[in-house]
Amino acid sequence: MKWYIPYGNPTYFILLAVALIPLMLGLLYGRRFRWYQTLISLFFLILTFGGPNWRTGISLVCYFIYQVALVSAYFHYRRRKDSPNKGWVFVLAVILAILPLVIVKVTPAIEAGRQSIIGFLGISYITFKVVQTIMETRDGYIKDYHPVVFSQFLLFFPTISSGPIDRYRRFVSDYEKVPAQKDYLNLVQTGVRYVFLGFLYKFILAYYFGSILMPRVQFGALMAHGFSWYIVGYMYAYSMDLFFDFAGYSLFAVGISYLMGIKTPMNFNQPFKSKNIKDFWNRWHMTLSFWFRDYIFMRLVFFLMKHKVFKSRITTANVCYIVNMLIMGFWHGETWFYILYGLLHGCALVVNDTWLRYKKKHQERIPHNKFTELLAIFITFNFVCFTFLIFSGFLNTLFFEPGKLR
Amino acid sequence: MDNVKETVLSILNDLTGEDFSDRLDENLYDSALLDSMGTVQLLLDLQDKLGVNAPISEFNRSEWNTPAKIIAKAEALK
Q1: Do residue A140 and residue B55 have CB atoms under 8 angstroms apart?
Q2: For A307-352, what is each residue's pLDDT tens digit?
Q3: Co-location of A239 and A371 in the same domain
Q4: Which residues of B touch A297 (CB under 8 A)?
Q5: d(CA A373, CA A375)
Q6: Angstroms from A263 CA to nearest CA on chain B
Q7: I need a labelling partner for A367 at 20 to 30 A (CA). Which of A23, A209, A349, B2 fits?
């Protein structure tokens, strides 16, 4: 038996098209066939987590039961009359929620690259959804929680492997209603356009950069032994591949969600024309960076300012930028290049704020025109590509483990 | 009631350096006058000065993006 990476090959798309027709006809005529949606969700989950992958399937099932039990328990604790809402209960719930992910991330680092047996494709993305739900439950903002709807949210198959990361309340409001026919037709139109744009991104552009150009420059860089222009070539080829591959995947995930009447948020918004690094994070992997902004950065800022840990607002912001991006680095994996990647982006946010303050203060003296804007885009783009080069781990392979290059 | 409005406007004035009393429907995020830091400061000031307890989750960029909406929220939560 075979298994299928979501959106990985033509067969997956054909199955998807066939399976979605009844659901789409229902939505068109004002009905959402929930049992049918559950049925095809299970089918596509089995395609990905079944067959030779059955072990990860079992991990997914155990993980899923664990998280639903955890969130249900915390929700009941919070919705009880006169819930004490203790801080430690909340912290414990969050720790329990991220524990499996931490084990999965740390295992390769301490066991010489061996993958943890409790891991499965997309564990991070489900964890983000769980933590978000716990935090909003703590704040009393999630008032209607239903384990079955929550399961639909966690296991929503179009976004199971790599996001985009939706929010519980947003998802539920779409899931529980049927869009008006006119709105649904617009959704279908946009969804189909996204899927075809995804084909262009993932199967043409990412294929060119990732499978044709990258191996060549990689080979050149390896042959050059040490620093060479090939590394610069690799940097750009890798960055383009990373973008078109991930943005292509995201377009599929969003496009298919739209066909199912769920407005999963977009993940990319022309990131390479960002004018500064903050602008970049508002355009690149947006659902992840907004998750970090809302559930780590802002909460940390809130905590530090409320308890007046630092005197100045600027220091508070800077500390939070670094912590926020370092956590993002650690989330990617426990290797020096992921952590350095996070640190560089944290520092870049600090530098960016400092520069913007300086610029505001000396408005009359610092020119602002079309040329400086282009320069800003150029600098941001190249900085970002450089951090992607670090992120790729290619330098690690090249300088420390050349034997690992195929 | 007017007290809430005046307080919110004075908080926004402190945060952004601008007077919004005749621009109640201006989008604070589109014009980049308010960022994440400013938002947190806003929530803390609302807590301090009005006793309005708005958790960060409650805060939603599309529902809190103009002075008028912030005033309405603050009045509703008070």
Answers
A1: yes
A2: 999 999 899 999 999 999 999 999 999 999 999 999 999 999 999 9
A3: no
A4: 36
A5: 5
A6: 16
A7: A349
**pLDDT lower than 50: segments of chain B:** none
Instruction: Report angle CA A353, A354, A355 to the nearest 5 degrees.
Output: 90
Residue A406 has pLDDT above 60, yes or no: no
- Cβ contact, residue pair B37, A313, below 8 Å: yes
Span A366-383, average pLDDT: 95
Classify residue A203 by its DSSP letter.
I
Closest-CA residue to B18 (of B32, B36, B4): B32
Same domain, A28 and A85: yes
Question: Is B43 in contact with A302 (Cβ distance < 8 A)?
Answer: yes
User: Do B56 and A302 make contact, defined as CB atoms within 8 angstroms?
Assistant: yes
**Which pair of tokens denotes residue A301?**
């800022």
pTM: 0.92
Q: Which residues constitute the domain of residue A198?
A: 191-259
Contacts of residue B30 in chain A, CB cutoff 8 Å?
none
Say whether A332 is catalytic.
yes
Residue A382 in this model has a pLDDT that exceeds 80:
yes
